[in-house]
Amino acid sequence: MTLRSAHWYAGQDRNAYIHRAWMRRGTPDDAFDRPQIAIANTASDLTPCNAHLTEVAKSVANGIYEAGGIPRELPVVSLGETNVRPTAMLWRNMAAMSTEEMLRANPIDGVVLLGGCDKTIPSLLMAAASVDLPAVVMPGGPMLTGTFRGVPLGCGTDVWRLSEEVRAGTLSNEDFTRSEKSMIRSRGHCNTMGTASTMALVAEALGTVIPGVAGTPAPDSRLLEAAHGTGRAAVELVAADRRPSTFLTEANFHNAIVALAAIGGSTNAVVHLLAIAGRLGIELTLDDFDRIGSRVPVLVDLLPAGRFLMDDFHRAGGLLAVLREVRDLLDPAGLTVTGKPLVDYLDEAPIWDAEVIRPRSAPLVAEGGIAVLRGSLAPSGALIKPAAASPELLRHRGRAVVFDSIEDFHARIDDPDLDVDASSVLVLRGCGPKGYPGMPEVANMPLPRKLLEQGVRDMVRICDGRMSGTAYGTVVLHVAPEAAAGGPLARVRTGDWIVLDVPGRRIDVEADLSDRAPNTDGFAAPRRGWERLYVDHVLGADTGADLDFLLGSSGSEVSRESH
Ligand code: FES
Ligand code: MG
Questions:
Q1: Which residue blocks in 184-336 are alpha helix, DSSP H?
Q2: Cα separation of 159 and 518, whole Å?
Q3: Ligand with an atom nearest the CA of residue 88
Q4: Pfam families in the record, alphabetically (predicted)?
Q5: I want to staple 96 with a disulfide (CB 3.0 to 4.6 A). Which of 123, 201, 481, 521 is the partner?
């Protein structure tokens, strides 16, 4: 088999001379005949959850060398969920596009994808799908559990909880600030079942991680061993020509959706899986998540839906132990990067702690997953995560209190004169992919202070944005079409009656919207740069919020070159 990199390095012409000469710098002669494996590295000091990936990359490189390949570290765009403004999601497609293009442009035969923080694994997988080179994901792993005054703190989830306690007057500002030093105990990504943990585990269920690796804590020495093995595997992938298009099928996505439901994973995974499928040309729809996922029991008792954290999850047996319990719901045709079916890895996967990972006979929630709602408020669909919602609110009729933007929300939510009570439905628009732009995680709106003080802890909330995977509450999100794209959400007014019926999968407004003009206060079209490109081309949340011209694959061929 001729390696792709041979199109750069083989031969005696002037171009081959240039490619080799500049890459020598101590490289032995035979290196140019061996598989060139990129290590797409999202390490960055500004992505603290991924900062340790440079050490992980060393172990990956050792594995690549050992198997006869040549590692080539490739720093790629990195998105730190907590820092990047206005929201990391605005840049997911940019990270995917730039990574795709740099993999294609360079003499690379295969790639190890090093990710961790929320958007990094999705963007790497979107890139790998579109360039269609042999690729394997190496997740950076979650951090260890931090404690404050003897009580574990869950990343994200406990920030939301503690800040609500401050607003409710039950926690002092001083104690709130004190807890900050305990939140992040070690290297690694958020330790709750937020988006980072979810996407690492879902990537494994999808078949793109070596089975058994995802969820290994970042500081655990076994992570580096896994990284070494992943490096070795990447060289084997090239020999087998196992590219994403050769083994990722509907069956893989089926298994990813089952896993997403069984772990009680983040709603963000929906938008990411839709986007990855879109790159592969696989017809995955919002309804597949409800059809496949809603019958699946939630077996994992992790924050935000439950009690424990990722360290506990790994100790309890990890993803394979969960999947073994729902083996009958998996599609046995789903292959992994190793070439073997996912289900082949489930025989030796016991549960070591049945409190953290529940057996099928005693689930945390009998039917979990993510419910897809439709109705006059969301003709193209909306999501709710029933396991994170209050059971008594899953059927609810209440009056809308509408906010036109997140700024409007912040300006008015704590106004003592705001006409709102516990039965009201908070509606926030202008937060979709186009509207914000970038679809921020704001759907889990903080409740009005006066209601918090009365002891109210949950209300029905509706938004065209997303919510953090670490958040909880009765939140209807990803409403499509979004307000900025002319969806009915733009025509709802304060005082309209809204009816939520999760068992019936409906979200409706009891009003005739047809003669109302859409309210587009707060949407301003960006003038230039990525935001302009994004707003002009981004698709709805219901299809993955990718850019229209990035759907599908261009493969890895580049036919022209001039020096
Ligand atoms: Fe990076 Fe949560 S902020 S994973
Ligand atoms: Mg987030």
A1: 195-206, 221-240, 244-247, 250-262, 268-280, 286-293, 310-315, 318-325
A2: 35
A3: 2
A4: ILV_EDD_C (PF24877), ILVD_EDD_N (PF00920)
A5: 123
Question: Which secondary-structure segment (H or E) carries 427?
Answer: strand 425-428
Residue 519: which residues within 8 A CB-CB, separation 6 or more? 404, 429, 483, 490, 491
469 Cα to the center of ligand 2, angstroms:
6
Nearest Cα neighbor of 112 from 144, 80, 79, 65 is 65
ipTM for the whole predicted complex goes beyond 0.90: yes
Distances (CA, A) of 39 to 23, 91, 234, 463, 507: 16, 21, 10, 38, 45
Q: How far is the CA of 186 from the centre of ligand 1 (A)?
A: 12
Q: Among all ligands shown, which has an atom nearest to the Cα of 218? A: 1
pLDDT in tens, 164-190: 889 889 999 999 999 999 999 999 999
Q: Which two tokens stand for residue 356?
A: 């953290």
- Could you tell me if 156 and 266 are in contact, meaning their C-beta atoms sit under 8 angstroms apart? no
549 CB burial (10 A radius; 0-12, 13-18, 19+): exposed
Using a cut of 0.90, tell me whether the model's pTM lies above it.
yes
pLDDT of 219-262, one tens digit each? 999 999 999 999 999 999 999 999 999 999 999 999 999 999 99
Q: Determine the Cα–Cα distance for residues 399 and 420; give it in Å rounded to an integer.
A: 9
Q: Is the CB of 187 under 6 A from ligand 1?
A: no
H or E stretch covering 9: helix 6-9
- 118 CB less than 6 Å from ligand 1? yes
